[in-house]
Amino acid sequence: MGEVQQCEGVRCERPPSFHLDASCSCDRLIMRRRKIAVAAGFCLSFFIATLLNLLCAPGFDHHQQHPRLQDGTDASLRAIAPDLLQQLRERYAEVLRYRQHRVTPPTSASARLLRPLERRLMDLQKWDYDKVPGSDSDTLSLSQPGSKIDVSLRSPRLGCQDIRNGTDVRYLGSGYTKAVYKSLLNGSLSVAMKSVDFGGHDIQNCVRHYGTLEDCYRLAAFKIVKEMILLQRLQHPNILQLYGYCYQDSNDISDTLTTITELGSPLEMIQLLQSPWEDRFRICLSLVRLLHYLAHSPLGSITLLDFRPRQFVVVDGELKVTDLDDASMEETPCFSHSDCFLEFPARNFTLQCSVEGKCQNMNEKRNLYNAYRFFFTYLLPHSAPSSLRPLLDTIVNATGELRWGVDEALVQLEKVFYLYRNGLYLPNITDTPKGEYREVAHTVVAEEDYRCWPSYHHSGCLLSVFDLNEAKDVCSSHSQCQAFVWTNQTTWTGRQLVFFKTGSRTLVSDPDKTTYVKLTD
């Protein structure tokens, strides 16, 4: 009689002669069920995280009536874990440090009239991070009703009403702390909106350890407040603009914060490597101008601790930093030079310890080396004009070895910009260009394109030139080129854009363009 085996509710029969080591079909069935359960669990967790993300999107007004605490405990009476309390206190102290660093206000009566409006901004309700009853005075405590964290900012251009009236809200992405959305406000202005990501790493990890969503939200929200202060205090063309903010109840938490900022395009390094050198140089020049400002900012020298391309966006061709929550104005203390150790994956540096007990220029040097390893080494030298390459190589090497500070790096890049914009990088411009060309005014070659690299056009050869002589030299150096079209378009440096063509058989009328046809011998 066959042996019967019960496998977790699955009945499986085996004949007496069945070998003991042979696998049973019920074993395979159990394994399949386990795999299905694991996959279902993964899908469910992904769905819940996505749902939380959408529910907490700026402007999403879900009027849930659930109690604020599942156990019914009053928020003002519950205790916080000591280490979470300490983290809240440290974040609060950091926000206060950045808030208190202000540019000296105007003194004249007329200037005071122009002083920006200030208002109470941050309401991290229920907690006053100063002292605990029955504890030392420097620990955190519950606040009295109405106690708030006061952060003064200019009166915002945009607020909650603008968010509620926004259209075309789209999720762009998220990091450890924040989720970013795109929205069209007032039917014309595209903006980025940032809020704490309830499904993100910071919130999920905190809740897993401490079991309190509201306190974990407050901890994460401090980073957004800090970023708001920095975006307000640091005014520079290469720092994203802060347009406004909004407080609204969300996810059973009062006064959740959403910031409204300028919208930029993500910095795509692969795409940037394929772009013309002039655009890549603009990114590097923008970056050094930014780092120079950060080294001499009103708050002191500021370093970007999370320095990666994803922390930047491009707005109208200009590089702008968008994430400042991990910026720091703290100078590294030291007792000796060995304390000023600057460590990177591929190289380490030891800086000088000043008589004041601070590592000299460490914030500045950290920024500059990160600019070298993420940007300069890839974007500066390749396909640059040959006469500029020695200077560009010097810039790359000097920043990679930290022989220069950011001041000298800016001077040298501005020198490259001056030489390039004014055509001084060209060989003797009085030389007669190779070949002769016939000018055909008010015409354009409609077709007859060929590809070159790098080009401003994906299917043709569209390059920038300083003047007509350089255009003729470029055409003479391309074996395919038999004509070129002088357009009415210029680049950010004021240089002319020129289409290079394989012939001139398809000439058509165009009042804004001029065609130059190579003459054959």
TrEMBL record:
Protein known as: Extracellular tyrosine-protein kinase PKDCC
**Gene that encodes it:** pkdcc.2
Output the GO biological process annotations, alphabetical, semicolon-separated: cell differentiation; ossification; protein transport; skeletal system development
Which stretches make up the Protein kinase domain? 166-521
**Which superkingdom?**
Eukaryota
Keyword Glycoprotein annotated: yes
- Supply one GO molecular-function term: non-membrane spanning protein tyrosine kinase activity
- Enumerate the UniProt keywords alphabetically: ATP-binding, Developmental protein, Differentiation, Glycoprotein, Golgi apparatus, Kinase, Membrane, Nucleotide-binding, Osteogenesis, Phosphoprotein, Protein transport, Secreted, Signal, Transferase, Transmembrane, Transmembrane helix, Transport, Tyrosine-protein kinase
Q: What is its EC number?
A: 2.7.10.2
